Protein 1
Amino acid sequence: MRPSWTADIATMIAHNVRVDARCPTCDSSKYDIDLHVIEAAKGGDYDLWNRTTACTFTAGCQGRVHFKYMWRGGMWPRTMGD
Ligand SMILES: [Zn+2]
């Protein structure tokens, strides 16, 4: 079930949600990505749910990066997708 505070970038920033990016193909992760950068690039109503981007973690990797969200103080990140 999708929490209402993951509705879009601006809402996640307002709720201080941590987002990690992960590529399962090359097994690379970037933790606690800066949502303000995404907001500046895509707008505050940009929605990361069920969204993937081309992997930039490893040169030549053909994988897709998935996003995970975690409530501050939460135990583990959850995939942003159904
Ligand atoms: Zn990758």
Note: Residues 23, 25-26, 28, 55, 57-58, 61, 63 surround zinc ion (CB under 6 Å).
Protein 2
Amino acid sequence: MEITRSYVDLSHQLPIAATSVMTDEQQHEVRCGTCARELYVDEDAHRLYSEALISGSDNPFRCEVCSEEYDDLG
Ligand SMILES: [Zn+2]
């Protein structure tokens, strides 16, 4: 039997890769949680960012550079 979880366990939340280039889809500014670079995300992702800030959680967003480094660390 195979169980597919549609929601990621919050305690194992992975960084969300965001782009530093504004696009038609991604017009909301957030900051990379590691290097504070400006990034652009869509509305849903920006809501997630706001909620993380309000609740005092870690900023889940990472720029391309930082998310690559995170991958390297395994
Ligand atoms: Zn970064």
Note: The chain has two helices and four strands.
Protein 3
Amino acid sequence: MEEIKKCEECGKVLKDETDEPYCKQCDEKLDKQFDNIEDNIFIFKELLDSEIKILEKFDDEDIKDLFKRAYTKLSHEEGGLKKESIIVLNKLKDSFKLKESEMGLEKLPDMKDLKKTLPKDECPECAKKIKEDFNLCPYCGCILKDDFVPRS
Ligand SMILES: [Zn+2]
Ligand SMILES: [Zn+2]
């Protein structure tokens, strides 16, 4: 007997020969939801529990790609990974039991590591008080801005 395949989302019988578990309409709807979740992570650094439920309908590979894109994008923001970026990335990581090493990524900083780097008015090398807009530490000479190229 031939197996009748139904859309996992709406229950409609799938007539086409397809490996997809969803009908075309649901597939499009889910893709759109996925895009919205991606925006929410990228722009608002938010990942709601209801959004995790939606992401659970996607393949592991889709989730890993999403994590990689989010990690890369949020790392390249001005000032590097922000606290809220790390929180949202950790949430995504923990919800889907992702491992940075398996995705070829560097380990996300721990929140406790982050605290060490938080004061922006302190030189990370010598811990003397500095101004936030300094390119170089006037005390020890270390470079404070990643994009600063010293004149030789
Ligand atoms: Zn459907
Ligand atoms: Zn210094």
Note: The mean pLDDT is 88.
